[in-house]
Amino acid sequence: MFIVGITGGTGSGKTTIINEVNKLFDSSDICLLSSDSYYKNNANLDFSQRDKLNYDTPEAIDFNLLNKHIDLLKQGININVPNYCFTTHLRLENSTVLEPKKILIIEGILILTDKNLRDSIDYSVFLDCPRDVRFQRRLERDIKERGRNYNDVVNLFETRLDYMHSKFVEPYKSKCDLILNTNENIDINPLVKFIKKNL
Predict the structure, then answer these.
(1) Domains in the chain with CATH codes
(2) Which residue, of 84, 113, 186, 190, is most buried by count of CB atoms within 10 Å of its CB?
(3) pLDDT single digits (tens) 126-168
(4) What are the start-end ranges of the E strands in the chain?
């Protein structure tokens, strides 16, 4: 199994890129995994406590489970990917079965912060996008899809996300094999060519 890691700041276009790549390849060749599914389960806390947690730091991700699942996929074993609810900040009781394929694409803001996961990734891609563009995309997504209000998203970006980005995301840009500008007119051909080469 060949592993491609796609990272970049919030709103940099990770989901968009993956959806485009997915359209171009047979589903029997590629499996997709998001680190968002592996947020730690904090069911022991009430909602107000969970809502105040920092979800943009490596400590928020259950990397032990994520790395274990990747190891299983490498061995040709199916995994049960947790289903995470961003509205309640909880894992759901059900999970989604993921079968191993020739290529695994894993995406997430923090995937390169974990050394074990970083070492497992064969080809890393950084999505480079201006802060203002990322902010607008995050604002629209959180309001439409995650039930957040405008002021909360603005406050989160200004008081936490900018700092988390500079500390845990941007430093890994120089370590990536490919940097894609995802501001507009995104050219994913370099990534597509590389995947085809490794199929």
Answers:
(1) 2-198 (3.40.50.300)
(2) 113
(3) 999 998 898 888 788 777 776 677 787 777 788 888 889 999 9
(4) 2-8, 30-34, 79-85, 90-98, 103-107, 123-128, 178-181
